[in-house]
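Hey, I'm writing a tutorial for new members on how sequence and structure tokens pair up, and I'd like a real worked example in the thread rather than a made-up one. If someone can provide the structure for the chain below, I'll link this post from the tutorial.
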Amino acid sequence: MIKRILFQGDSITDFGRSREEQNPNVGLGTGYPLLVADRLLADYPAQGLEFFNRGISGNRVVDLYARWKIDALNLKPDLLSILIGVNDTWHEAFWQNGVEVPRYAEFYRRLLEWSRRENPELKLILISPFVLTVEPGPVGPTWRPEIDQRREIVANLASEFDAAYIDAQQLFDEAAKKAPNQHWLSDGVHPAGAGHQLLADAWVAAARRWL
């Protein structure tokens, strides 16, 4: 039975989460992890679900790897959600400190292998990185092709590790047909409220198979 759920990632997951509170279901920030937790705690009140958010703003996949034991494995999740990749592109564009696509694939795979060695029954939800063009905003013309490469890597890893896969780029591409990009992603990277709701709805739909 799924009880302990952990969200991992960068600022999109972090979104103001507490650095002090260690108890489950509190200090989850104001983004999609909170929306997911509220929905599932309301839908499954007797299940004793525990939610933790360990996203950290600015993280790349190598940063996740560096803190994986203390911030993931030691929490012993039953279900692990990962959203990582946009900073691997962003940090290269601005500071020449990104993570090239092949190394992104290598370290992402290491995270999943390490996690499954610790818990062979671990359930996984992998969310693709995503961007939309917003002016003014950081997203440059070379970002989308690289994000699409990272997106393909996550999709392939999800298939290999029997994980649920959320193609967030497709989600936002479809949403952008209904309202301007900035309605969904305030700067082309970070979700506005409506964007977080889209992510949360997709996440809940993906997770219900295990609840």
